[in-house]
Design a protein that fits this description.
heterodimer; A: 237 residues; alpha/beta; 6-stranded mixed beta sheet; 4-stranded antiparallel beta sheet; globular; B: mainly alpha; ABC transporter involved in vitamin B12 uptake, BtuC; two-stranded antiparallel ribbon
Chain lengths: 237, 303
């Protein structure tokens, strides 16, 4: 569905992504794991158009999306939840969610309210707090809000960057569960970037291990999880 | 008592105009995240266009709407040809620090102001000219005294009220208003949400351009028109926006009226020479007691 080939992304003289080739399969959860600085976030940011690659290709449903702007890539059905609970603190919960559906207003007018309501069903806590400013939410609620903001655009592929960052284990589990259920029930494809490899491999179908911008392993998640040598070498446990 | 009423009415009519200027500043702040010092230059320019139309025999109202339209077009052009290329130049050495990046558009807006004033001087000559008012400028008479409050002032106050209501509704109730706020607050999240941030910013500049042209049209009947007449109004309008809170339309209008009153009461009860001292005192007091402005939200101001 999403196919990346020989992708290279640089920041000045630093090569963050160094010839990555991988795929995200339809209706599956693919996880990209690796240590801090492995290039995981840069990979997602390059897919969603926030960073520009210096070479390589990204193909989405057979069409190249390189050089497209982030706002156009969302329109093609790829939604990105960047690292760090990316919500706009000064806007209310409801405004943050509806922000993600603004671009659909003209073509899918009748679907806007149902889409927002679905988000409240998925995360009922957000409904209780809809009039509050996003800045007043807890870390977990903010992550739920960031995910809702992305999902309300009805993407086919969700790029999820470190949803576990800074959250309590119980909250992480709850969020990962919701994403998992969504993937299994609606056929949403997910590309999940995680430093917390155990959690990610527990839920994913396929795993890609990244180190210093290169793919070290690309295998079914269960195999990757069982490979003690690989884990010791690259993840440190 | 008469002096009091006179001060009150002058404060109201002046305040309304400062409110409008402050409102224009708030719109660009909320929609593009910068303080636009070129605003009154834009207003002066479109008022000259109106003035030229009127001199050539066109009706006041045709000139009025032509000025609003040209204000909007000029605002949009400034954004597309100056502000957008500046903000896209991320990697330039000059813009390496965050604070420099925030300062560049502000400095550019000062440059635009100078350029517009010079250009107006070249096209229309730098001497003052009058500008007509759409309503009578004779003071109302209350209990035998003539107040400095005219039908024109009523017109000004009602226009400001309508502009305030429309701006508030626009920002809070419409999709494009939400897109504008999101763009100013966090461009990356806005883009990832599918908001076309370049287009949104241009719309903010256009609306603000129209609003400041409106201010220009309403000030010049009492102040005359020259390339520099609106400088003072901009200074007071900017102070009003800061006093009210840069990101709040209601705060801007409140700040405008507060400053209008301060200026008017100081003029009547003290001496006009102290007006600037009083403005400075109000600004200092607000910055010390409540730096975010009367109705501003936290973190609203980083410039």
């Amino acid at each position: 569905m999403l196919k990346i080939e020989n992708l290279v992304t640089r920041f000045g003289s630093v090569v963050a992504i160094d010839g990555v080739s991988m795929q995200a399969q339809e209706s599956k959860i693919t996880t990209v794991i690796g240590a801090n600085g492995a290039g995981k976030s840069t990979l997602l940011r390059t897919i969603s158009g926030l960073e520009h690659p210096s070479s390589g290709s990204i193909t989405w449903k057979g069409q190249s999306i390189i050089g497209k702007r982030p706002e156009d890539i969302v329109r093609l059905g790829i939604a990105h939840v960047p690292e760090g609970h990316a919500v706009i603190s000064e806007l209310s919960v409801e405004e943050n969610i509806s922000m993600g559906s603004l671009f659909r207003r003209r073509k899918f007018k009748s679907d806007i309210t149902p889409a927002i309501d679905e988000m409240y069903e998925l995360f009922p806590r957000l409904k209780e707090r809809r009039k509050q400013l996003a800045g007043t939410l807890s870390g977990g609620e903010r992550q739920m809000l960031a995910i809702s903001r992305a999902l309300v655009s009805r993407p086919q592929l969700l790029l999820l960057d470190e949803p576990s960052l800074g959250l309590a284990p119980l909250v992480v589990e709850q969020i990962i569960d919701s994403v998992n259920i969504l993937c299994r029930s609606t056929g949403l494809s997910v590309l999940l970037v995680e430093q917390n490899a155990n959690t990610a491999l527990g839920v994913a179908d396929h795993g890609v291990l990244l180190a210093l911008g290169k793919v070290v392993a690309d295998r079914p998640a269960s195999e990757l999880k069982a490979d003690a040598k690989l884990r010791a070498a690259y993840l440190g446990y | 008592m008469n002096t009091f009423l006179a001060a009150l009415s002058l404060g109201t009519s002046r305040g309304a105009i400062f409110a409008l200027v402050a409102l224009g500043l708030v719109i660009v702040w909320r929609g593009a995240g910068i303080v636009n010092f070129a605003q009154m230059g834009q207003a002066m320019f479109s008022t000259y266009i109106a003035s030229t139309l009127i001199t050539n025999g066109y009706s006041y109202w045709l000139a009025f709407f032509a000025a609003l339209l040209s204000g909007a077009v000029l605002g949009a052009l400034l954004d597309i040809f100056i502000m957008r290329p500046l903000s896209n130049k991320k990697q330039s050495e000059l813009l390496s620090s965050e604070s420099m990046r925030a300062a560049v558009p502000v400095i550019a807006s000062l440059g635009i102001l100078g350029a517009l004033q010079a250009l107006a001087g070249i096209i229309w000559a730098a001497e003052e000219r009058g500008f007509p008012s759409p309503a009578k400028q004779e003071g109302f008479t209350v209990a035998g005294t003539v107040l400095p409050f005219t039908s024109f002032d009523v017109f000004v106050v009602s226009i400001v009220t309508v502009a305030l209501i429309l701006t508030t509704l626009f920002f809070t109730k419409t999709g494009i208003g939400l897109a504008m706020r999101a763009t100013a607050l966090n461009q990356e999240v806005a883009k990832l949400s599918g908001i076309r941030t370049n287009r949104t910013r241009t719309i903010s500049w256009a609306i603000s351009g129209a609003a400041s042209s409106l201010a220009g049209l309403l000030i010049t009947p009492t102040s005359n028109l020259s390339p520099n007449t609106l400088d003072l109004v901009l200074i007071v309008g900017f102070t009003a926006a800061v006093v009210g809170g840069l990101d709040s339309p209601v705060g801007a209008v409140l700040g405008g009226f507060i400053l209008g009153m301060v200026i008017s009461f100081v003029t009547f009860y003290d001496t006009p020479e102290d007006v600037f001292l009083a403005i400075l005192a109000v600004l200092l007091a607000v910055l010390i007691i409540r730096p975010r402005g009367i109705l501003g939200s936290k973190d609203a101001r980083r410039v």
